[in-house]
Specification:
Strand order of the largest sheet of chain B: 3-2-1-4-7
Helix content of chain B: 25-40%
Distance between the termini of chain B: 5 Å
Distance between the termini of chain A: 21 Å
Order of helices and strands of chain B: EEEHEEEHEHEEEHHHEHHEHH
Structural class of chain A: alpha+beta
Largest interface: A-B, 17 and 17 residues
Number of strands of chain B: 12
Structural class of chain B: alpha/beta
Number of strands of chain A: 18
Radius of gyration of chain A: 23 Å
Number of helices of chain A: 13
Radius of gyration of chain B: 20 Å
Strand order of the largest sheet of chain A: 6-5-4-7-11
Helix content of chain A: 40-55%
Oligomer: heterodimer
């Protein structure tokens, strides 16, 4: 965490540059005069900063605005094609690499099945995919972002990622040794929360985004900020062992990962399950949705059992579920709602909204990581 | 109809790329087929998955190009003799099988020939130039683009250099001649990094240079990605070339190149062959440069 200090002159200059870029980002196309009105910076300061941004290529002059008497002002816009952001989503059994432009348009996407890679092998595969992706990047690279499951510090150390067999891996440093680009590492659920919060159609500053996939995790947005926690492990609800089962209490991940859901469905229907859990879940629900009602209800109740305390403690009114679980549909949402209603004050549960994500779950991590990189590198988005 | 699907099918991995107005979505999945007929289902499923990832409607696909191991008859749309895909002597009607799912022009070519086409962007005049590709993986094969066209031969098997015997005697590989190039210098033998397989490869490369006098001879395949093996191959070809004043003057060592690990010549080639369909190439050329045009 950064400790507040008295601003030095160069800090101020950097801050002003960020203000200016933020204005152009948010209200492009805009003019120098418009920015001056919005920021209270002097015309000279703004011209200076805009000049630098144009030299960097991030901002370009795109034409002339209507004259308000006198010389027509020059319109400024972000040049989306001045930089690329390369992201890699390691959360599923298929890793998704994406090259985005500055406005997050997808320029290139690589998806590779890496089912059981762990440890050093997984790291080598990350390097290989980044090499391919950066080779496919058509413009200069602003930064690289990795969305990974597990506990990740803000310095980019993967403290623990069970599914990848990584422990205390300084991933950002290791990758920075191979390339000159800034590397950012973000927890996958937190990235999903960034995407849902900033780009989804939710009108709230507090939300809990639950990501269900190979693992189960969540991202917590409080007062418009992603909450990291003291040890960067906030939101790791998948590892809370508080689900009652006849044999004792088990973790949420052990009953709510897509693999666990698929296994529960297979055992209920007495069929074999093999291959990709998400495909199996979608296919089974399509062929006989009613059969699986008990699985869906149990899942909703288990999720509610873990979420109730969080939601009840923090007074969060929006829960978003993200993952290849859309086929479970409204019955799942209903089961979560009723599980929460059983456990919470009626005044709170009445206001509670439970929904699926607005952002396509397959691209949510990439989108969130891309947003994060642009934010860290340029102070915008 | 402004997107193209390109397959690079292999015995262990299937790769598909969708090119939508210059934006690529590339998907790599394991090939898990148990019979020849499984292949159709597998390819359809893989393409549908890639379309889902790219968020592109299947109706937007205008042409499909496929590079696949084995002997390909593009006119009939069939493949045979691809043992790693369980395809034997009986031709698999690949195009007909895919057509019932994707009713668009489908072009099929042998994988090594496809990759060679994918590499022609490296030479100054791809339409008229000559390029030889040598693929060294678990097997060895070559393909030649001569004056801009793929050299196929009568059976489509031109370039099966893995079957030639450079020395009498030695091990055999899947029924090859004893000491055939593929038996002495493919993946497993090469991995030992002894001089013998490298020398054999150098002789094969030297031979290809003499036969085709190409703009470029490009070496690829999994094994040739390792830097030390590349250096050993280059040194061995250089030694052989310099051993004779004639070949020293006929072969320029700078025309020997390697496929870089991040390159995908198989995919590039499959896009290339999909674009051979004239109307597709027109439409693609237009849509790739026209923003906002409806499909």
């Amino acid at each position: 965490m950064r400790v507040a200090q008295k601003a030095t002159r160069s800090d101020t200059r950097e801050q002003n540059a960020t203000f200016v870029l933020q204005r152009i980002w948010a209200s492009a196309p805009t003019t120098r005069a418009e920015i001056a009105r919005e920021t209270n910076l002097t015309a000279a300061t703004i011209s200076d900063i805009v000049g630098n941004l144009v030299d960097d290529g991030i901002v370009r002059e795109v034409g002339l605005a209507a004259s308000t008497g006198g010389k027509p002002p020059v319109l400024l816009d972000i040049d989306a094609t001045s930089r690329c952001v390369v992201t890699l989503d390691l959360s599923g059994s298929q890793w998704i690499g994406t090259v985005h432009d500055l406005r997050q348009n997808v320029l290139h996407r690589d998806v590779v099945s890496h089912n059981d890679l762990r440890g050093i092998e997984a790291l080598a595969a990350v390097k290989k995919m980044l090499k391919d992706l950066t080779a496919a990047a058509p413009f200069a690279i602003l930064g690289v972002g990795i969305g990974t499951p597990g506990v990740v510090t803000t310095e980019g150390i993967v403290v623990e990622a069970t599914n990848l067999g990584w422990h205390e891996l300084p991933l950002a440093d290791v990758l920075s040794e191979c390339w000159d680009w800034p590397v950012h590492v973000v927890n996958d659920s937190r990235a999903t929360a960034v995407a849902e919060y900033l780009l989804g159609d939710h009108s709230t500053r507090n939300m809990l985004v639950v990501k269900i996939g190979r693992g189960v995790g969540s991202g917590i947005v409080l007062d418009g900020n992603i909450y990291d926690g003291e040890g960067s492990a906030a939101g790791e609800i998948g590892h809370i062992a508080a689900i009652p089962r006849p044999t004792g209490t088990v973790t949420l991940e052990s009953v709510a990962s897509t693999r666990a859901i698929a296994m529960a469905m297979a055992s209920l229907a007495g069929v074999d399950f093999d291959g990709r859990p998400s495909k199996f879940i979608a296919a089974q629900l399509e062929s006989s949705p009613r059969t699986y009602r008990p699985v869906v209800e149990q899942l909703g109740s288990d999720i509610a059992a873990i979420l109730a305390t969080v939601v009840g403690t923090l007074d969060i009114h929006l829960i978003v579920l993200s993952g290849p679980i859309d086929p479970l549909g409204e019955p799942l949402l209903d089961a979560v709602r009723s599980g929460l209603a059983d456990r919470l004050l009626p005044a709170l549960s009445a206001k509670l909204e439970v929904s699926f994500g607005d952002i396509d779950e397959r691209t949510a991590v990439a989108t969130g990581v891309c947003t994060y990189v642009i934010r860290e590198e340029l102070g915008v988005a | 109809m402004s997107s193209i699907a390109a397959f690079d099918v292999g015995g262990t991995t299937t790769r598909v790329a969708i090119d939508h107005r210059g934006t690529r979505t590339y998907l790599e999945v394991p090939t898990r087929t148990e019979t020849a007929a499984d292949l159709i289902t597998h390819l359809v499923g893989t393409l549908e998955e890639a379309l889902g990832l790219a968020q592109i409607d299947s109706a937007d696909i205008g042409a499909i190009g496929i590079g696949i191991p084995g002997t390909v008859d593009n006119r009939q749309g069939t493949v045979r003799l691809a043992s790693n895909l369980h395809i034997g002597d009986v031709p698999l009607p690949l195009r007909a099988g895919l057509r019932s799912h994707f009713d668009v022009p489908i072009t099929i070519e042998n994988d090594v020939k496809t990759a060679a086409l994918g590499l022609t962007a490296r030479i100054p005049d791809p339409r008229n130039g000559t390029l030889v590709y040598l693929s060294i993986g678990t097997g060895i094969a070559s393909a030649a683009i001569v004056n801009g066209s793929v050299l196929r031969g009568v059976h489509g098997s031109a370039g099966e250099i893995g079957q030639i015997q450079l020395e009498r005697g030695g091990p055999s590989h899947h029924g090859s001649l004893p000491g055939a190039l593929e038996a002495v210098a493919a993946g497993p033998a090469l991995a030992e990094q002894s001089d013998d397989p490298i020398d054999q490869l150098a002789r094969a490369i030297h031979t290809l240079f003499m036969l085709f006098d190409p703009d470029l001879l490009v070496v690829g395949g999994g094994v040739a990605e390792a830097d030390d093996i590349r250096a050993m191959i280059t040194d061995a070809v250089e030694r052989l070339r310099m051993a004779s004043p004639t070949t020293a003057s006929l072969i320029e060592i700078g025309r020997l190149e390697f496929v870089e690990p991040e390159e995908r010549p198989g995919i590039e080639g499959a896009i290339h062959i999909a674009l051979q369909i004239p109307e597709m190439s027109d439409r693609y050329a237009r849509s790739a440069h026209t923003e906002g045009e409806t499909a």
